[in-house]
Write a structure and sequence with these properties.
single chain, 397 residues, mainly beta, Neuraminidase, 4-stranded antiparallel β-sheet, 32 strands, globular
Length: 397
């Protein structure tokens, strides 16, 4: 385990790096804009389709591709090595299917894979370059587990269950194995759901009690589970957490409307409001406390937003069409997601303070979708080629 002093030192370094990168980006944007490009990451041998899931600050991408032997295999793509099949769990073969979760800045990947060729069950895994795909097992009395995210300590966040209605969130570490998280103190919790994990090992998600109350939570190894409350309504869900321990997600108001929120230890749960309509939903938060997601406008259209403590909720617009959706935000305050064009096609976008919403185009087809952005402004997702196939991409400014 990393001591608290070293962890907070890393956080200070990340905040300083964000400021430096912001300054450098502002200076070099005009020079680099003409070099922006979407790279087709291809497929695994014999495959026809691939999808980018997440991207780390080394520009490495994890995702899934079909192959000559399986409908879905997890890959890691690197600039130097291209697309690599991450293999199977012990007991599996090239025919075993697997699905991606996330990738950290060490190049480690999580997701879930068939536990053997004869078993119908999926198990969460952690893949490392030195150790390959490691079966993380399940929580006691559970048959299934799914890895959704991995932090820079190599800790994996996911859910484990017999059936989805009976899910329990877990954190896995190399030293402690799989540990259940999110049980609300003093309440009869029957299921928990994973939302996000930060580089301090702090977790958010949602916890549901037997009486039907669903609450966002913050879990820490030292303090256990904290109920984050709601915005006056019955339910809340934690979606993301930054390295300051700030949480974002969606909560019910007293009127029953769903609104995006940001929770901090000092101020509690804050309603981020909407863009003039009834609804908003948060998807991600950066280490500056800025939030992105989707909100209703006064006309009822869904638009991507960026929320800042100083500027409140900002409408990021569209690419000429009706709707847009924010998927990720980096520590430069840049947002990625998907937006409608004037023709009605969905295209991936990147939004910056200086340039607004930029169409990232496609790989020759009609469609593209962004899923994640790193602190270099690089983006991954999937796009259609001229032949109509979906391929994973990496877009670089």
């Amino acid at each position: 385990m990393m001591c608290g002093q070293r962890r907070w030192s890393r956080l200070a370094t990340k905040v300083l790096l964000a400021w430096v990168l912001t300054t450098l980006f502002a200076v070099t944007w005009i020079v680099r804009a003409s070099a922006a490009s979407m790279t087709d990451l291809g497929t695994l041998p014999g495959g026809t389709q691939s999808y980018g899931e997440a991207i780390n600050d080394l520009g490495q991408v994890d995702g899934s591709s079909n192959s000559s032997s399986a409908i879905s295999r997890v890959f890691r793509w690197t600039p130097s090595g291209g697309m690599q099949d991450l293999g199977s769990l012990p007991g599996g073969t090239n025919y075993s299917i697997s699905y991606p979760g996330g990738i950290n800045d060490l190049g480690q990947v999580t997701g879930y894979a068939a536990s053997s060729t004869s078993s119908p069950y999926f198990h969460a895994f952690r893949w490392t370059a030195s150790g390959g795909m490691q079966d993380l097992g399940t929580l006691p009395s559970r048959h299934l587990s799914f890895g959704f995210a991995i932090n820079d300590l190599g800790e994996v966040l996911g859910d484990s269950y017999v059936v989805e209605a009976d899910a329990d969130a877990f954190v896995w570490s190399a030293s402690g194995g799989m540990r259940e998280v999110g049980i609300l103190p003093g309440q009869d919790t029957y299921r928990t759901s994973a939302g996000g994990i930060n580089d301090l090992g702090q977790v958010t998600g949602s916890s549901t009690t037997l009486d039907g109350l669903t609450q966002a939570f913050l879990w820490t190894a030292s303090g256990g589970t904290q109920d984050l409350g709601t915005l006056g309504g019955k339910a809340s869900h934690g979606a993301g957490i930054n390295d300051l321990g700030q949480v974002t997600g969606t909560a019910d108001t007293a009127s029953g409307a769903e609104h995006a929120f940001r929770w901090t230890a000092s101020s509690g749960m804050q309603d981020l409001a909407t863009l003039g309509g009834a609804y908003s939903q948060a998807t991600a938060i950066n280490d500056l406390g800025q939030v992105t997601g989707t909100a209703d406008t006064a006309s009822g259209a869904d638009h991507a937003f960026r929320w800042t403590a100083s500027g409140a909720m900002q409408d990021l617009g569209t690419l000429g069409g009706k709707a847009s959706h924010g998927a990720g935000i980096n520590d430069l305050g840049q947002v990625t997601g998907t937006a409608d064009t004037a023709s009605g096609a969905e295209h991936a976008f990147r939004w910056t303070v200086s340039s607004g919403m930029q169409d990232l185009a496609t790989l020759g087809g009609a469609y593209s979708q962004a899923t994640a952005i790193n602190d270099l402004g690089q983006i991954t997702g999937s796009a259609t080629t001229a032949s109509g196939a979906n391929h994973a991409f990496r877009w670089s400014p």
